[in-house]
Design brief:
mainly alpha, three-stranded antiparallel sheet, single chain
Length: 175
């Protein structure tokens, strides 16, 4: 141990997690900003003072020491359980504000989509009206064509089919 404090590797071994996991926690907010006054770099090695070590230990619960690797949700629970109420409140407030911003963004997207759907409904209505007008025009033209062709058929006499004498086999037997 150096006089500047302990290295990240030494603290990670004491806590029972990997060096990479500890670096990940140190880089994440709010620990990153809280830990900054307790860290120093000497020859490219990060040293953490005893107060910083206590802060890191308070962030990690005993369950994370045993498990080694925990999922992200457990890390949030660990941080919330081990921090004072005012820090928990600030974390909750930041999460709530992030969620509210996301909800507002999604609501704006829904409003835009609703407007687009309204415009499409208007277009559909206009096209439907145009189609009805076109169909009525076509029906009118078909009627006119039928009326024009009907008088010609009425003036020309239709030839009546010639009546052929019917020969019946039963006629012979009746006599």
């Amino acid at each position: 141990m150096s006089t500047a404090g302990k290295t990240v590797s030494e603290i990670a071994r004491e806590i029972g997690i990997s060096r990479q996991a500890l670096y990940k926690r140190i880089k994440a907010e709010p620990l990153s900003s809280d830990l900054q006054p307790f860290t120093s770099r000497v020859d490219g090695i990060l040293y953490i003072s005893a107060d910083g070590e206590d802060l890191i230990a308070s962030v990690c619960s005993s369950s994370s020491r045993v498990q080694g690797r925990v999922n992200r949700a457990d890390n949030v629970d660990c941080k919330l359980d081990s921090q004072p109420d005012n820090q928990v409140d600030s974390i909750q407030e930041s999460l709530i504000s992030q969620m509210s911003a996301e909800i507002d963004f999604l609501k704006k997207q829904i409003d835009v989509k609703d407007k687009q759907l309204g415009d499409k409904d208007k277009q559909i209505e206009q096209l439907s009206e145009s189609l009805r007008a076109s169909q009525m025009l076509q029906a009118g033209l078909v009627q006119q064509i039928q009326c024009l062709s009907s008088p010609d058929e009425q003036t020309e006499p239709k030839p009546e089919p010639e009546s052929k004498p019917r020969w019946s086999i039963f006629k012979r037997w009746k006599k």
